[in-house]
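Fold sample X.
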Amino acid sequence: MFKAISSPYLVSFKSDFKISEARTTPEDEPPNKNALKKQLKRRVGDLAKLQEKLYAADKHAVLLVFQAMDAAGKDSTIRAVMSGVNPAGCQVFSFKRPSSNELDHDFLWRSATRLPERGRIGVFNRSYYEEVLAVRVHPEYIDHQKLPDPAKGEDLWKQRLESIRDHELHLARNGTVILKFWLNVSLEEQRERFLSRLDEPEKHWKFEAADLDERDHWDKYMRAYEAALNATSTLHAPWYAIPADNKAFMRQAVADIIVRSLDSLDLKFPDLSDSEKSRFGAMRDRLNAPN
């Protein structure tokens, strides 16, 4: 079963993670933007090679979970990091407001139906964690979930976090590599990015007034994130709290963790048996025979 690789941004398994101590910028001054782009390009190339082996070996699936506040850079990070991966071996899903059909199932159902197959990389842009983040900040959403006898207050979140831990353990035991990234953007940086969406015409489409409403709940979201990360960062399904104020650094850091994690699996192309190889000569003769 996969085990988390080390990183300065790995969320402790001791449930002692504090958002107030988590950095939104790297501890050391990162290389300049061009150098970071070159590092990212190399890692994207490494990931493409590893994904080819992952697909051929057909033993592991990879699930990448991205969670963050609005404007932290989820979309652009996914796009940048996965840019070199064969589309046949990768699938991306975004989870927004659940449909009526999804509300007729348990809260894990809609994401479970979109899990990656063996040999493929699945990317969740937001995920089942919204059920202990957005729903925790807005408990009135529970009223729409048709629960027969919902738990109240802290008991509900405790139960849901327990269900998530059990779910991820089951996936890991069956060959899914789970890597979860919380893109940690600061309140001030979010403000600057929102302003740029208002100031630059090509970014107008990104802005929604509802984003400002959610910003008003910043402290509640931070408490919900802290509780979720502490309860669900495990050796087999780790969380990484990535500084997100510098987008170039964030993308390179995410790519580096993914590549090193896949590299730790020691992926190899399947080796054919001697009997299968012995047939190559006959096959070659057939292909070279005149029509």
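Fold sample Y, listed below.
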Amino acid sequence: MRVQQSGAALLAAMLTVALVASLAAAALWQQWRSIEVEAAERARTQSLWVLTGALDWARLILREDARTGGADHLGEPWAIPLEEARLSTFLAAEKGVAVDTATEAAASQVFLSGYIYDLQGRMNVLNLIESGKVSEPSLRAFAKLFEQLGLPRNELATLTENLRFALDNSPSNGSSRMAPLMPQRVGQLVWLGLSPRSLTLLRPYITLLPVRTPVNLNTASAPVLNAIIPLLDMAQAERLVTTRQFAHFRALSDAAKVVPDAAGDLNEILHSVSSQFFEVQGRLRLEQTVVEERSTVQREGILVKTLWRDRGTPTAPTGALQ
């Protein structure tokens, strides 16, 4: 009997130890998980603050560029991409600012990169509609772009009609009729009838801005130049791109000298040599966390305001073809 009692006591002790170990392991795992979640959230928050600072920096660059005046071109400081660099590099560049060792060590593990793209180097979809009606010059330009890319013309017709309908029936016009929802981003143009394939091919060449805008001949790619200037062929468009690499166009007349056959098609409504709308792309890498942000800014004089900001997973730069 005593042996049985001793065996039962030993078994109960072993079960108790196993239960305590299991509870301790579960508590330890919960604590580890909480620490990991808190660390990830802290890293994400820190990344967003750094990207906010990067956006302010980009706005400062664009504001200083506006002070100099003149044309906007790809040889200016704002057009030079920031390749991935340690954040500690920027802290070290701040003369007269004391940085403690812990902050410097933490910054050495953070990598920042960014780009500024001229959105007026692309064709603005909103240009298709003018005063509630289809703009024939813009429609012909988009038709030429669709032809270059081998896209179906019926999608352009659908896009144009749905865009006109969406603008005509927007809440700002006081209409309550059913209409397509007005897109705010290029990726939302599928709402107006573009297929995902067509949108993918068009994305490097088009933009969607809140107002009608001309195309900047200093920053537009050859396919955009070919589309926006009626009598221009691709060889002449490439000649414009090559010429501006050595000397940017200070006025439309400079571009006209390069392609005299198409000089009569250049006008200030569809073409320009300066820009107001830019896209700022920032990418921050902190250990295993990568945060990317895209912002659209508008420059009016020396005032640079942010229209919208969008965060998401890392993607290829949309302005790579510029």
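Sample Y note: The chain has a mean pLDDT of 84.
Also: The chain is about 45% helix and 20% strand.
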